[in-house]
Amino acid sequence: MKERIIIFDTTLRDGEQSPGASMNAAEKMRLATQLEKLGVDVMEAGFPAASKGDFDAVSNIAQKLKKTEVAALARTSKGDIEKAWGAIQHAVKPRIHTFIATSDIHMQYKLNMSRDKVVNTAVEALKYAKSLTDNIEFSAEDASRSDRDFLCKVFEAAIEAGATTINIPDTVGYAIPGEFADLVKYVIDHTPNIHKAVVSVHCHNDLGLATANTLAALNSGARQAEVTINGIGERAGNTSLEEVVMSFHTRPNYLPMTTNINTELIYPTSRLVSSITGIIVQPNKAIVGANAFAHEAGIHQDGVLKNPMTYEIMKPETVGLSASKLVLGKHSGRHALRNHLKEMGYDLSDEELQIVFTKFKELADKKKHIVDEDLEVIVTEGILRTADIFRLEYLHVISGTTVFPMASVKLAINERSVQGAGYGNGPIDAAFNSIAKLTGTESELLRFSVTALTGGTDAQGEVTVRLGEKGLIALGRGADPDIITASAKAYVNGLNRLEYLKANPVMATT
Ligand code: KIV
Ligand code: ZN
User: Fold this and answer.
1) Nearest of 225, 180, 207, 187 to residue 8 by alpha carbon
2) Does the CB atom of residue 44 touch ligand 1 within 6 A?
3) From the centroid of its chain, how far is CA 334?
4) Residue 240 Cβ contacting ligand 1 at under 6 Å
5) What is the C-alpha to C-alpha distance for residues 224 and 4, in angstroms, rounded to an integer?
6) How far is Cα 42 from Cα 67, in angstroms, rounded to an integer?
7) Ligand nearest to the CA of 72
8) pLDDT tens for residues 309-367?
9) Does the beta carbon of 141 sit less than 6 angstroms from any atom of ligand 1?
10) Distance CA 89, CA 85 (A)
11) From the CB of 16, is ligand 1 less than 6 Å away?
């Protein structure tokens, strides 16, 4: 008999704490819809007290989702809990998630609170949360570096005050699998009322052990895993959903556990998260990296041709990784496009469909085969980024071996057109200089990378930029069959994201 594990996805909250990964409201909503389709049990939609933007995004998600439980994060203050509840109260199943640190180092230096004060603060917060809902999660931040008996005391008081899930975070990614498994077992064995709550774990990946620690904890009796898609999150990230879920699939003898995840949606969801956040998935990333199912050595290739199981422990199709399918072509009509987008999870209004259809036709003129990845980019760029301040209207570049590279650019800035030109060391530098002049940006380009969106020489180039300005970091992404245009789009997207961050300052939580 397999144990059912609750998958608590925090891509929209801890994941969004990855440097540069801020998402706008439309992007968050798109991702939330996809996570529901993927089958996560609980979705932590955000931290409503952090900003008005976060509150609104969580509230919209809570009202839209049809079956997934929606959690909102709150510190142990009445104000935070009120905001969290305000944002999720209309969800089909709302959950308040409140937290306070329990390690000596955090209590002394960050909170300046005694142990008793921490217990009382947690209890007061939980009692208040209990007056609003029965579904409450309590996290003991930095649990893995906390005194074990004190941790059990806090959890006992938390459950008594109304917590229905108690979470053991390895906040700083310090734990080692055997040690963490032992800690979870200790908590289960030494918290008298533990049977009244679900035990959860939340691991960070600072030592590259987040998945290992999570699996070890589940083997010790934890029944909820807190995860993110692609493992994105604060610093080195969180436990990745795909690694945990596929470990259950691949090693049922050691991990007799099951989830509600539709594994065939893992790869498309990974792509979506990467395309929305601008965070590239490292090629050697387990399960969803570009090389995860690529066989380089001749002996391996030969073996896989004879029997895939010689070197493949999972089938690529199980995680939704199939060759990009030709979906639509130049002659496909609006109806076929609408139906296909619906299958991909996009329910567009007539006006949105018109925007996508126009861009689809433009792309189909340049590229014969339009696949899902192309459509994903069209929707992300054309629909989800609607609140943009800067929009690229026109780009013309002169470059070659005998001319000094020059770019003419026309931008819409808050829908007012401006144009200008600039020189550079190469065509991309020239385009960026022109855009920088027109926008007056003070940001610095910290990183630039280009890849192909799909296979084939007519594939769209996909460019990611990382911009920094006065401590703020934003990632920008753009795709186009022409990589200079893709670069300009990525730069403009990064500048928009910086503006979004300036307008929506977010408080750090952990
Ligand atoms: O890492 C952490 O401790 C957290 C908590 C808020 C659960 O993200
Ligand atoms: Zn965390």
Assistant:
1) 225
2) no
3) 31
4) no
5) 9
6) 10
7) 1
8) 887 899 999 998 865 565 788 888 888 889 888 877 777 889 999 999 999 999 988 88
9) yes
10) 5
11) no
Q: Whose CA is nearest to atom 5 of ligand 1?
A: 141
| Tokens linked to 281 | 């998935």
Q: What number is the average pLDDT over the span 468-491?
A: 92
The answer, yes or no, to whether residue 79 has pLDDT greater than 90, is yes
- Residue 82 pLDDT exceeds 80: yes
Alpha helices by DSSP H, 147-265: 148-161, 177-190, 210-219, 241-250
Give the 3-state DSSP-derived string for 478-503, with helices as H, strands as E and coil as C: EEECCHHHHHHHHHHHHHHHHHHHHH
Name the residue with higher pLDDT: 476 or 344: 476
* Nearest ligand 1 atom, CA 139: 7
| pTM of the predicted protein model | 0.86
The reply to whether ligand 1 has any atom less than 6 angstroms from the CB of 106 is no
The total of other beta-carbon atoms located within 10 Å of residue 290's CB is 14
Element (H, E) at 275: helix 266-277
Phi, psi values for residue 221, rounded to 5°? 120, -5
> How confident is the model at residue 323, as a pLDDT?
57
> How far apart are the C-alpha atoms of 439 and 502, rounded to whole Å?
15
DSSP string of 59-82, one letter each residue: HHHHHH-SSSEEEEEEESSHHHHH
